[in-house]
Each structure stands twice: as structure tokens, then as C-alpha cells.
Amino acid sequence: MSETRTSAATYAVCSVEITATDAAGGAARIVRDAVAGRPCQVHLCNAYTLSLVDNDQQMRDALYAADLNLADGTPVAWLGRHLGMQRPVRGADLVGEVVRQGDGHLRHYLYGGKDGVAEKVVTALAGHVPGVSVVGTETPPFTPITDGDLDALVERVRASGANVLWIGLGTPRQDYLVHRLAPQLSIPVVPVGAAFDFWSGEVKAAPKVLHGTGLEWLHRLASEPRRLWRRYLLGNPRFLLSAWRHRA
Question: Is residue 4 part of a domain?
């Protein structure tokens, strides 16, 4: 991780430094940097994200350069129990916490999701924190993002006055983009995966009875088997092997 990091303790998972904090703590860091106009490259690290590190140079570079890697997944949180980790930081929870803590101080930009999803997220966030300021929404095409596309996005975000940029493109695409964007924007850039879908109501979150059990992935797999089977059935064993190989 780069030098101007949070002072919170970290622990290594698959060679990646994870900050030992919950959604409220992660949100507090993001809000502080947003209000101060400081860049903050954030990544939410679940088992699938970390399973890519050994063989994906782009992902490895992104996570190693991050200002804040958060444990987005019960197995990743479990590995930090010795530092007091009790639960993972889910993307949807992080969005809600940042909006709540930053009420009156933050201007949000939403980039990602299917057509119409970002607009539904705005409505849901306004119900969560009335008066929340969302200054831009975009649904990008599912095509590679060129350098020209990136430069244009940077200009749009700057022109909007946003001081938090949320990326909802799915792993690993969103993590690659955050790593490319962060050096050009003096604001937190946060990839939150399916959080847009959860906030919009397009996808139902796992039942609370599964929270903290390490089995929430079964609900996601059952909900979207064709899209997610590789992530869970191949990624989970790969994560366990990598975590074992890199154990202290």
C-alpha cells in the first residue's frame, strides 16, 4: 500500500494488505478524504478479488497501490479476527455509511450499472438520507475503456464537482478502472460491485440469516448461476490455495 495510508492496523491476505475496519470505519476514512479533497483509491476485496492476485498483474498492481483495501467477504474478514474484525464490509453497506456520514458535505457521482439502475440508486439513497447530493450518473457501455474514454470521464467528474466517485462495473473491471482513475482525481474512487443492483432493488441481498456465515455466496450463485458460477466454484478454491500459500 502507498505511504499516506490510514493508521488502522492491517493484515495480509494473499499478499494484499487489508485494513482491519468495519463499514463505519471505512466510510469515515472516505468521508475525511473527500471533504479534504484528497485522493483515496479504495478496493473491496472478497475471495474472488484476492484469488486473482497471483496471476493477474493489473489486479495485483491495483491492490498493492490502494489507499484502503477493505474486507468484502466473510472469509477475508475471518482472517483478521486477531485484530478485532467481526464482519465484512459489504459494498452496499459502505455506500450507505458514506452517504449517512457525509450528509451535507459530499457530492456523489455514480458510474456503472445497467440502464436505469443508477437513477434508481439515486432515489433509494434519497430515501436513506433526504437531500443527498448526486451530481452525476452514467451507464457505460460494456466495452473496453480507452485512454480517450478515461480522459473524458475524468473531465466530466471534475466538471460535476463530485468529491466521491462510485464505480459499479464488477470485478475485475472496476478495480482496473479505479487504479487508472485514482491518480487523475483528487477524490476517493470506490468500486462497489453489485451495490448499485442491491440499492436499486434489481438484485436481492442474501437473507440476514446467512450474514457472517461465509455462505452468502450460495445465495448470489443461486440468483445468477450463469454469470457467477466461475467466480465462486473456481474462485473460492483458488482463494483458499492462495491464502494458504501466502500465510505468514
Answer: no
Give SS3 for 155: helix
Q: Is residue 87 part of a domain?
A: yes
Print the domain residue range for 38. Answer: 10-245
Looking at the structure of the chain, the number of domains it has is 1
Scored b (16 or more CB within 10 A) or e, 211-242 reads eeebebbeebeeeeeeebeebbeebbebbeeb
12: number of CA atoms within 13 Å, CB side? Answer: 12
Q: Indicate whether 5 belongs to any domain.
A: no
Residue 88 lies in a domain: yes
Give phi and psi for 162, each to the nearest 5.
-60, 145
Determine contact, residues 1/11, Cβ cutoff 8 Å: no
- Residues 114-142: tens digit of each pLDDT: 888 989 999 999 999 999 999 999 998 88
